[in-house]
Amino acid sequence: xxxxxxxxxxxxxxxxxxxxxxxxxxxxxxxxxxxPELPVYxxxxxxxxxxxxxxxxxxxxxxxxxYYWVPGVWVSPPQTGYLWTPGYWxxxxxxxxxxxxxxxxxxxxxxxxxxGYGYGGSGFYGGRWEGSAFRYNTAVVNVxxxxxxxxxxxxxxxVNNITINNRNSFNGPGGVTAKPRPEEIKAISEPHIQxxxxxxxxxKVARSNxxxxxxxxxxxxxxxxxxxVNGRTxxxxxxxxxxxxxxxxxxxxxxxxxxxxxxxANADNKPSEQPANNPAAKPAExxxxxxxxxxxxxxxxxxxxxxxxxxxxxxxxEKHRE
Length: 322
Description:
By secondary structure, the chain is of the alpha+beta class. It contains 8 helices and 15 strands. The chain has helices at residues 2-23, 182-188, 197-207, 214-217, 262-265, 284-289, 305-310, 315-321; strands at 30-31, 52-54, 57-61, 66-70, 72-75, 83-85, 88-92, 95-99, 102-104, 127-130, 133-137, 151-152, 170-171, 225-226, 233-234.
């Protein structure tokens, strides 16, 4: 009886604590459509010593009812010794649930998804903390050694400098079917820190860019990576990305007020839209239909020949000018 009560208490404790543990890695967003494949892209060089790489991922917008790509980016960790565990989409029953990423002392489970650049599906091989300094494995990540000096080379780890095309972006049937390893399960119970304010701002900027949505880019976003939050944007070829026609240089929706100039450009086809007090903007056929006022100084050469022959010699007009 005592053993039964003991087991019951332990079971209750697990049930109570489990939601808290999983709350750290899941934001509860569920979608009935699986995310697009991971796009191919090149990693920009690390902008400064101490920055860590956060791989790009597909996020979901309930407002737009669509996936949008959050570019991979170099960010400053919240504190020394912490590493980033990427988020991932996992299939659960009949929906796909997003498990958000987090900062922690050890890398946890991220669905077995191969994000590249040290995130080969489990663990991280792009560098390590040594005391208060982070050392980068230049065999895996893109680091300019003239800017960053804490580096080493380890070619025995998984090297994947460019994410593979047609790579599955979720864990579940039809995608990756990896299971958490013991050390990854252990990492779940460790203290975590959610995405920093810079990371959250980075997500919002991506969501405000129409060119990042799957419905408009067919799974090929114009901006795939950035060297830092609010920094330079890069396309899949590793070149500086050009703003799409629907966004401005700041990755914000384009101000379409310029479209108001269209009537002026088509004035010959839409005479009724021209201001009544702007005779210079009126087309020639309009001047033939309406009589010119006495003070209209349009040169006689611009008037149709037929119009000149039916009018008087024009002396009254000359007297008026005098």
